[in-house]
Amino acid sequence: HTPSTTDTKSIMSDTATAVTPNADAEKALDPATSTAAHTVSETSVATDPAATPDADLVATYPITIVTLRGEELKLQVSPIDSMQDVRQFLFESAGACDFTSYALQFDGKAINDFAELGSVQGLGSDAVLTMVTVPYNKKTALIHIRRLREILSFHNHRVSNVPSPALFSSFSLCDDEPITQAETEQHAHQHAQHAQQQQQQHSGGAKGKKAKGGKKAGAHQQQQQQHDEPSPSNSGHSKFQLKSDEEETAQVNSRGLSAFYPKNASGEQSPPCIKSIEFSGWNPAPGNRALLGDLYYLELTTLEGRTVHITCWADGFYINDSDHHHFNPQPATTTKPSHSHTLSGLLFLISPAFKRNFNAVLRGGQFGKHPFEMMAVAIPLTPWVSPAAEPHPYDRNRSEYSILYNEIDFTGTLREWNEEYQTSKELPKETVQERINRDRNIVRVHNEFLDAATKGALLIVTGSLVPMNPFEPSERHMFLYNNIFYSFAFDTRDHRFKPTPITVDNHDGGYAEEKAPVDIGTYVSANNDLRAIRAANEADISGLSTVLTAIIDYRGHRLVAQSLIPGVFQKEDTNLVYGSLDRGKTIVNKDQKFSECMAALGKHFRSTPHSVTDSHGSTHTLAAPVTTKGLLGTDGRRYVVDLVRATPIDYNYIDSGSVKEASPTYSYSPNECLLRPEFVTMWCDAKEKEAAHQEKAKKAAEASAEGSTSKEGKQPAAAVDASTATPDKSGEGEENADESAPEEVVPQTIFFNPNVLKKSANYTLGEEHEGDLKKAEELLVTLASFLKNGLLPRVAEEFMAMASIPVDGQTLTTILHRNGVNLRYLGALAKHCTAKASVLTILEQEMVTRATKHEFNRLMRDKRIPPYSIAHAVSHFLNCFLGDAQHITRGLDLNRLTETVAPVGADGKQAQANGKASNKQNKNKGKAAQQSSKKQYKYPTPEGEIFMLTSKALWKSIQRIVKERFEYELVITGSYEPPASDITSSATTTIFTDSPTSTATPTDTATTTTTTTTTTTNTEAEPPKSNTRTKLRTISTLRSFCLKVGVQVAARDYNLLDPLPFGRQDILDTFPVVKHLDYKTQDGQHILNVGKIFLAQGRLDVAFELFQEALAIFHQVYGPMHQDTANCYGNLAMVHYHANDISQALIHQRKMVIINERVMGLDHHETAHSYGNLALFGRDLKNDGLLESSLQSIKRAHYLSELISPAQHHPDSPTTLTHMALMYQDLGRKDLALKLDLEGLRLAEYLYGADEGNMQAANICHQIAMLMSEMDNFKEALEYEKRNYNTLVNVLGERDFRTTESGIWLRQFTIKGANKSQLEATKGQRDFISKLSLDHVPHVPSQPNNISILLQQQSQQQPVQKLGVGAGASASNVKGAGGLAATRKGGRQPHQRGAASIRGGAALAAALGVRK
Length: 1412
Known about the structure:
By secondary structure, this protein is an alpha+beta fold.
């Protein structure tokens, strides 16, 4: 992994402004959450003085650092910045990137590397820190060598080898001013002078004058500060050139994976500086040489072809007299300087080519990109698609790269993950800054644990680790790696069943009816446990500890990784103090402190204390499920584990109060069907508020009846039990409250009994509360009934009305989970959405890919699959899933990527795969060719059930799994007639057709809206009659499946009409899919949410302060590379945009794009809409160079949206196409812009209806009218403006200013059209007269047209201001009451996402009566 490169401007050079939230913000924020949040990575913000111990802590000031070469680097710091932050800045700046072993001095005294700047006596504004050399040791020497090799070989790094890659530089113009040649030569001269000075200081009596290093301006620092500045010139014209209409149209229509990575994704190749830097064969240093300071021996080959041997010792690097045959580590006897403290300085002395090219590398590579593109990501993300044909050059440096990383750790002892985690959680949290430090430590330990857990999981799956219990079945194997405990998420001990393995005789018939154990129980339990631990961490109960947990899915195996509890391997009954180890047979509750902690945790989970009697007759009071365990560790801490059933059971999956029998196949276990905590919390809160409101109304009525002098209304309200807080509702089956025992329920709060609805022979619930048990069961019945009969229809209504729009499986999952709906209800939700084909397609795709994931994982766990045939197994499964493949019947050469003998096709014949040659092609190649063709059948047939799979059998299995997991019937039979827009048969598909096609655009989730009126009628066509299998043969389905199972495919155009679209060469890698605790900082989240509220209200000043404060917290806790940090940048961009500071908005939006690419994914929907906003900001800046760059960005957004959307049309397609048309219009391509506008109008009418209530179609009609007006086609402009006017009258009324504006445009177009007609008539008359002879036809003077005279008189009576004809001057795009004035200025408002503009925001959407 490449070391991080931070944003030097935003990290150290931004000028901080101390601002104080006003009274409204202070009222909105809880005082405990106000923070003196500061980070070295972003602008510091001072907040509530009560929470800020010293205002000086957030004030920034400049300091100067003098490097070893004499350069001066200036940066902004604050007193709470540490020296580690300063060193990180120097490590990532071009002027000091190759310095690693040094110390910083102030007034001649060294500063501790871990000290804060405020603790250094006298260090303040304009202070000068001097860099001095420090002797190397083995660790720092390796760091120095590794750093130089990274700088030199970065240009050779491939996109596929970079974790969490970024493609931002490929779509955005370079914003840096190029370094001049004089600056380059000056820097090289400084480097050479420094190296010569080091040589003279260590030459031991060498004669000559010492070189003097002068003070130089920080050119590289200035270059870093310009990373975020928008380009002021038209420098982009040389990089982006518009093509012909046909080529531009083909690029817009491109949907193939070959366009996923642009051609310049790897960037420009930097010139090579050196051939190789290798560790010499003379390593390690002998003992006598080690005593003299020798650390390592290197062998370098320069570009001039010179091979030198170098000694790395404590004081630097020098050339020795060794060669391949003789070892002589003494300094070489040469007259030229051959010593330097840095390796780069030594290379400057011995290689002119290195001296010449090194500065070019500093100008390009990692220093030529935006710093955020090079910053390390805490949780690396592997893309599901990777460049297919990247070269693999010979590089000795790369071969030793992993060795350096392995050696540099020097781990000596294993990490104590649990101790580090618990110590971090026990840090003080009274003040905001203390909570920030605590959260930062927790996040750091969590991220490092994830990295180590993932490495261990990969070793386990590949068989590189020995289990702790090797004599037990493999499903029960447990592993211990780096103090992390691993176990497989299998449950072979329960009575479950799985299908009979497919055989040759049964490969077309799916599964037989025989029964065998299945591994589903703990597979789902692991998810429930992880979710409950996350909720317990949010509760943050003092004295109660949880363990670090991660779930890793890799190659079909699910591993649960947890940190070790001290003493867990001892006898379990000695440290069990709460719960049961044997499913309730023996229950213990012998620790009072633990009982109090569990009671507090139960309140968070809404679990009421209840009595349970075990099989021995002992009765205990528990506030958690019986299966929950409380352990007392040997460290004295109290740990809670097995929180699988922390939330209530879903009654919809319980039959008559008893657990359903397990299905013979993949049905859910009723024990695992739990309600989501989001749903439980929202439902309970709503019921409690309703009960409080009814109680208040009741008391008010009583007080009114008793008279105004009565004082009884001041008495405290009576307690309300669970049933009282949930009054009877029609259709919900809820009973009235029983007021006889109100004391057993917390007032105004609903609690559940987590052990009801689950009968067990091991324990019984308390019989003295028989009535309460019945009420608890009825409460859960009511809860489940509301979920199925109340919440699901409401969610479906939102989907149908396009009020809440899922664009792919990820957004669908997020929407459902936020509403508290489990994904097992996808089938029920699909039944409510059958009339909306686009929504139904998304739901069906998610069900199919999830079912396919389970089948794929089951087949991949087959031990008969050798590691070298995994690529072939995956490709065959994909051919069965998205193609029409048969089982493998003949042997294959598994060492070849291209199959010489392909699998059997759908017609039963041998299908030709990529790269194979037919017999006809080989018949004339002689006997040798004939013999080789005979030998090809002698390869062994691959073993494993997956190779016996067929498309027919797989889809039958998918149909069966979907039926039993989601209770939904798939249609997989019927004629195979895939629509052209759903099957990507080539690199491009046409959108400018008469039939609807798939055009997807980004969804603006932060500040823009996809809008439609409440009166919109759904006119979308009925779902296609083709079967689900045909409908889902798309790239979007491939993407969804690969992301779920961790498969990386090649970026090429797949012909999914082919029976065998995938080959082994297309499977590039498999990667783990990790689920983790995702720790959040509550302070930052709260401030961010409040800031969004103020932004929606138009309070930009308060929103800006809150977003800056939240950003400071996120930078300190997470660092820049985090989703919440990107969200903050996006909101700051919107604040600046609304404040007309578009240049600053563009800076923040660029950061959001890069972070989303690297954290969320290159093709995530958040990445797509952030690219869209970036394009709109760039266009509004009115810069020619940025305009073309913005066009590339919106094309990228359009491509990604089409790629990820499984539906035939993305809901935001019309707006993206029309914005793209505006950019083409600004560039003078009006014909192409008109095509895009017309396509956007057609899609708007297709998606939102063709009636007069479609505001989005009305906006596009106005845009087309403006474009037609520019093209002097006033007749067509008048027709489209009439459609806009009629819609505005129908929706807003005739008195609305936007309707009035449209009327003005109608008169304007009428006048212009009449004038044009008059001119054409006059011209025609003159042309006709000119053809006649003047001798026979008298001259007739032209008379003014009566209609034009009437219109001119009307215009004189009611003057019409000459308006700009910009297409963006739509009535709905003008903000506020000054919309007409803005239009009169000719200003364009192109930032419309749906019917409401970005600038208008929620206020305009409310005025239009539309939904976000």
